[in-house]
Amino acid sequence: MTSSQRHADGGHERPGEALRLGFVLWVTVSVFLFLLARCAYICLVRGPVFTEMAVAQRALSVPVASARGAITDREGEVLAASAGGPAPGPPFTHAAIFPQAVRGPSSSIAVLERSLGPLSAGNPRVVRLPADHSHELAEAARSVVGVVPFQLSGRAVSAAVHAVGHLSAASVGLDGLEASFQWALGSARQSYVRLAVDADGRCIAGLGASASSRGAQGGAGWTGYVRTTLSLPLQRAAEEALAKQGAPGAVVVLDVRTGQVLAMASAPVYDPGDVAAELGREGAPMLNRAVRAYYPGSVFKVVVAAAALEAGVRPQEWRYTDEGSIAVGSNVFRCAASEAGGHGSVGIGEMLALSCNTAAIALAEEVGAEAIRRQAQAFGIGDYAFRARLHLPSALSGRIGSVYDTASEAGLANLALGQLHVEMTPVEAATMMAAVARGGEVCVPSLVLEAEAPSGQRVVYPATVSGGQAVSPATAETLRHMLEQAVDAGTASAALGGLDCAGKTGTAQTGRVNERGQPLYNAWFTGYAPRREPRIAVAVVLESTRSGADAAAPVFRDILAFWTRTQAQASS
After folding, report:
1. Domain 63-225, classified CATH 3.10.20, yes or no
2. Model confidence over 377-412: pLDDT tens digits?
3. Which residues of the chain are in CATH 3.90.1310 domains?
């Protein structure tokens, strides 16, 4: 091959060689740029996330209360709402304790352990600082590594604390609606207090403690809600009327037309933000007495009268002569008028109005225990459905004595008087009175209208659920006339005479006495208003106090006055 040929051939080879070199260069530059971009993304965009993850591998954390859905009344007025998450500055309300990391001056640790217990034992936890803690305690908390003081405003509850319930330190519902509707009220994000430590459990200098949150935003917002049937103005009025008596007790107000709970008050009240302190407080303030079962006393005579009327006993014909006492087997039961020789000749209406014990026993003997037990069940006493519609985990049902309990003459007599073998909750008593007021039909009481979770899941509860016909409309009408007489000329006349209402007092024996040896009673009043086209049914119970007429009826009077005033304002 000549040189000119080789030169020509070399000229043909150079373009292919240049193409290969260019491709290699392009790939190299592309890979370099990709790696550069990836490094920039990791360092600048994802850097803080990876830093947090690295710290988390050597971090101790404990959950604290976080944002939580609101609980409102029927009009959307807030009953329970949350503030923000944990804040690092004073005034300190809580402290996170990380036992394995606790180190510091022995004097400071001693100060803390006197109030908070052992610091180096147990699991990471959050404790509430004493409300009146000293500056010394706060400074000790700041000087001990492994103890992180912080401020947490917590959940603000404006009313109906027993119905609302309370939370754990991790913002999880423990009782009341808070517990039943954790699925709706729980936040989509959980707050934590975190302490960065090394492999030996020592706090890492420069990192220390911090607050963080984890979780995703729900489709319908960060928090859900629960809308109750309560009316906040009426709820506050019920709480004020109850507090005036200064005795433990409860008030329940129902809408006669629907069975919805308009007010549910229990006394004494408690601080849901300091459950540990309330647990040992005198008077059992955390007990929701509105759903606790009590002996109903003479309130149960309404059931006895209803059973007699439903059995065909004609009120205009049935009479009994009360001489002040009645012998039942080896027992003697007395009437309140025994010292005066009794009430004389009384019918069913007078038995209710005057609360005559001997007449009630005589009527019960004629009707029989089984008819009375069936009538009580028809009114919903002891019915689990009542508890289910309230959504209150600690709610109880009343009870009616078994066939064995009421087989004896004395057992039947005690049943007639609402003692020993029968118990009712205030909710059940109000429901019974509402049934009488609405023509004999029972409406199962309810406390919640609707609830929605952060995810958007929404549940709307039926406005009214019928519990069946407890008595005929004719029997209900007869009972209403009798209950009106109890207010006009009976045991409730001193407190309620002249008011547009009807009802029945009750004074149940407790077996307890005061410091002077005088017997203490559970005082009842349950009634409805107004007499024509009734709108509200109310049950009041007060523990260890005077008679129902003296103690419970005035509470009903105050609630009725408030309700009447608000109705007049609404119509003007």
Report:
1. no
2. 999 999 988 888 999 999 999 999 888 788 889 999
3. 63-225
